[in-house]
Structure formats: C-alpha cells, structure tokens
C-alpha cells in the first residue's frame, strides 16, 4: 500500500490532536485525510489546507472535537461540514456523503459510512484519494493514484453526469489542468465541457471569476487556456477574450494573473469596465484593467525617459508597468528596453504639483475658473519640461502675464 512520506502536516501536533479526537469517538479508521492534501503530498506540491473525511455524523464530530478541548465551528452542518480549530489551525471535517439530488449548483446530500460512495460523488479521480493517520493511501476509484502521478485530470465516472451535478466543475477541470495537468486533456472530459458549456450561466459571477483568476495564477496556464478555447468555454465566460501570441508571451514574463488577464482583452477602457462588472471582479482588479487600458495608447518600448515619467505622472506607476508588460509581450525581442522602462516606471516617484492657488493669488488672480485653467496650463508645461525642480515662480508669472495665460 502506498504511503505519504515526510509530510510535516501529517505529524503536526494540531493534526494529531484532531485525528485523535475523532477516533476517540468513532474508533480507528473513522477519519481520513482527503482531497488536496493527499494529492499534493503524493506529487510533491505544497499543502495549504488539511481536510478530513469521517464516518461520524456532523453532530458527533462536533461533540468529539469539543470533548478533546478543541474548538468546533458548524460551518456547514447541513452539508456535513464542521471546522475544527487546533493550535489556531483550521481543519474542515466532512461526513461521508452521497448525492440525493442536484441542480447544477447545489446538492442535497445524505450521509453514509461507505468510502466508495463518498469517492463516487467527487469531481476528479485524483481528488478522490484518502489517507489515514499513518499516511496509508486509499484509492476507491482505482485510478486516483495513477492520475496524480501522471498529471491526468479525469472525472470520476461519467463526465457529463459530474458536470450536471455542478457546472462549476467545467472551470475546475481547466483550473486543475493548469495546475496539475501534464498530459493531453482527457477527450471525454473536453467533449463534456464543450457540450455543457452553456450550463455555466447558472453559476454566480463570483464563482466564475474566482476559478478564472486561480487558473491564470498557475505557473503554466497556457496549455489549459488553449484547451478552454477549443472547448468553447472561454468564449462562454469571457467572450471579449482572445488567446494570442501576447498572452503566450506574458504568461512566461509575469506570474501576475491580472497582467495575464489584461493581455486577453482588447485595449478598451469601457470593455474592461463592462467585463469586470459582469464577472464581478474585485474593485482592485477592475481598477487595474481600466487604468492599464487608459495608459496603453501612450506606452511604447521606444519611449524616452521623460515619456515614461510623464506617463507615470498621468496614469500611475502600476498602470504604466502593466501596460509595459503588455507591450513587452507584443514585442518580446525588445527585452532590454522593456526591463529598463519597467525599472524606471516602478522606481520613479510622482512629484506633487509645485504651485497652487496661493501663488496665483499673490499674482493678483482671483479664485475661480481662471485659477484652475492657469494651474492646468502650468502643469502641462511642467510635465513637458520633465518636471524641473526650480523656476516655478517665473513660469507661473509668465503664464499670468501672457495674453492667453
């Protein structure tokens, strides 16, 4: 039997305390680690969360946790989930389940003590892996271990059945392909995703955008993104997107998912704003997409240093750096120029406007629209002259005295 080796989380005091509490109530073997922690341990990937499956009913699991002096939080009792907190670390504990009814978004479940039944309702075979407290691995589908080791993303059972249970599994398929896939996409899975892609309209925008951004954050998203295009899935969720050479280049240049996303979109502020609203991206993501689209027309790898400083002053360092990444992806041969401009954009600090209404008042200008017009004119000249640090009074006086101001 395969075992998990050298896993600090497996023998950590917090983990041992939770497993001991559950087994004190349900006996040896009533609890096993499940899903991502087992999969990642097998393939040598980092383990972030430790989830546990148990034959104990949710109320029994909660009582067992509290009896051991640990904290139990009823995070999803109706679906069988209790969160245990030991040594300030959370563990999601879920009773074995089988689906009674599904509607493409949520499932009505019944609890079971059959590990095979629990495995049969999971999405992919490499996620239907369990391990006991000794690290012994259990593979109810008979294929999860081999899939994990080979980098195959294959649905448990019939792909269309799994997707109809929850249409988010379409996006999860491509997300797992990006993070863990090392083989050609499973053809049956691709066909099911293609056939049922329209079902994703049932999903909330937040669920869709979260999966998309997690996919884009993968170390190598290009393979999965190309598969999404072939299956018609990307067009379903982001019809504005085009996966072209710039995206392929930027995926190698930057790990930032927002930079990768903006390279999928045309340079269009309104489009970026509309797409962000539809997918309900966080405000920070929306603002970056819109700002980069606004800055992009002024950005080129042939810019002079004063051009870069002017762009940073007008659009902000983040927007200019984002737009420069796009230009670099469009012209990958100009790496030296791109790196130099990025260093300048990210290192230069936008200075404050060195004059204001008080200086104009001393020159006899009454507060009002004329003040704003003159300050704007001064600012444009100051930018054009590359932000000189002196001579401000003379420039302002010349503006006030000139016929056009």
Explained architecture:
The chain is an alpha+beta fold and 405 residues long. The protein is 53% helix and 10% strand. Strands 3-4-5-2-1-8-9 form a seven-stranded mixed β-sheet. A two-stranded antiparallel sheet has the order 6-7. A hairpin with a 4-residue loop joins strand 6 and strand 7. The protein is elongated and about 90 Å long.
Tell me what portion of residues adopts beta-strand conformation.
Answer: 5-15%
- Largest sheet geometry: 7 strands, mixed
Which stretches are poorly predicted, pLDDT < 50 over at least 5 residues?
none
Output the radius of gyration. Answer: 28 Å
| Arrangement of strands in the largest sheet | 3-4-5-2-1-8-9
Structural class: alpha+beta
Gross morphology: elongated
* Helix content class: 40-55%
Secondary structure tally: strands: 9
Count of helix runs: 22
Distance between the termini: 85 Å
Overall average residue pLDDT: 95
Task: Note the main attributes of this structure.
405 residues; alpha+beta; seven-stranded mixed β-sheet; two-stranded antiparallel ribbon
Strand-helix topology:
Blueprint: H1 8-11, H2 13-26, E1 31-34, H3 36-43, E2 51-54, H4 58-67, E3 71-76, E4 81-86, E5 89-95, E6 97-102, E7 107-111, H5 115-120, E8 130-131, E9 137-138, H6 144-150, H7 159-165, H8 168-180, H9 187-196, H10 205-216, H11 222-230, H12 233-237, H13 245-253, H14 257-264, H15 269-279, H16 283-295, H17 305-315, H18 317-330, H19 335-347, H20 357-362, H21 369-384, H22 392-401
Parallel strand pairs: 2-5
Antiparallel strand pairs: 1-2, 1-8, 3-4, 4-5, 6-7, 8-9
């Amino acid at each position: 039997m395969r075992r998990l080796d050298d896993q600090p989380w497996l023998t950590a005091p917090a983990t041992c305390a939770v497993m001991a509490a559950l087994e004190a109530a349900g006996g040896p073997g009533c609890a096993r680690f499940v899903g991502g922690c087992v999969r990642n341990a097998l393939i040598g990937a980092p383990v972030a969360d430790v989830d546990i499956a148990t034959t104990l009913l949710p109320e029994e699991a909660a009582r067992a946790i509290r009896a051991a002096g640990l904290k139990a939080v009823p995070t999803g009792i109706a679906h069988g989930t209790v969160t245990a907190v030991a040594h300030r670390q959370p563990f999601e504990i879920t009773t074995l389940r089988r689906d009674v009814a599904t509607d493409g978004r949520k499932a009505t479940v019944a609890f079971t003590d059959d590990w095979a039944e629990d495995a049969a309702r999971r999405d992919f075979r490499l996620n239907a892996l369990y391990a006991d407290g000794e690290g012994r691995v259990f593979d109810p589908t008979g294929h999860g271990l081999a899939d994990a080791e080979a980098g195959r993303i294959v649905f448990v059972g019939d792909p269309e059945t799994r997707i109809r249970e929850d249409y988010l599994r379409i996006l999860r398929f491509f997300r797992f392909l990006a993070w863990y896939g090392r083989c050609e996409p499973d053809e049956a899975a691709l066909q099911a995703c293609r056939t049922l892609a329209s079902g994703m309209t049932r999903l909330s925008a937040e669920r869709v955008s979260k999966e998309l951004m997690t996919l884009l954050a993968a170390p190598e998203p290009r393979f999965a993104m190309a598969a999404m295009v072939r299956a018609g899935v990307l067009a379903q969720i982001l019809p504005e997107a085009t996966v072209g050479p710039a995206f392929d280049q930027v995926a190698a240049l930057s790990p930032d998912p927002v930079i990768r996303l903006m390279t999928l979109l045309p340079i269009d502020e309104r489009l970026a704003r509309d797409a962000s609203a539809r997918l309900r991206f966080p405000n920070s993501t929306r603002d970056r997409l819109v700002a980069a689209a606004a800055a992009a027309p002024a950005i080129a790898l042939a810019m002079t240093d004063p051009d870069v400083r002017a762009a940073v002053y007008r659009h902000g360092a983040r927007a200019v750096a984002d737009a420069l990444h796009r230009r670099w992806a469009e012209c990958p041969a100009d790496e030296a120029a791109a790196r130099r401009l990025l260093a300048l954009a990210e290192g230069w600090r936008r200075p404050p406007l060195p004059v204001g209404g008080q200086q104009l008042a001393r020159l006899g200008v009454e507060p009002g629209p004329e003040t704003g017009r003159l300050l704007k004119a001064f600012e444009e000249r100051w930018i054009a002259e590359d932000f000189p640090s002196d001579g401000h009074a003379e420039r302002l006086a010349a503006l006030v005295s000139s016929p056009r101001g």
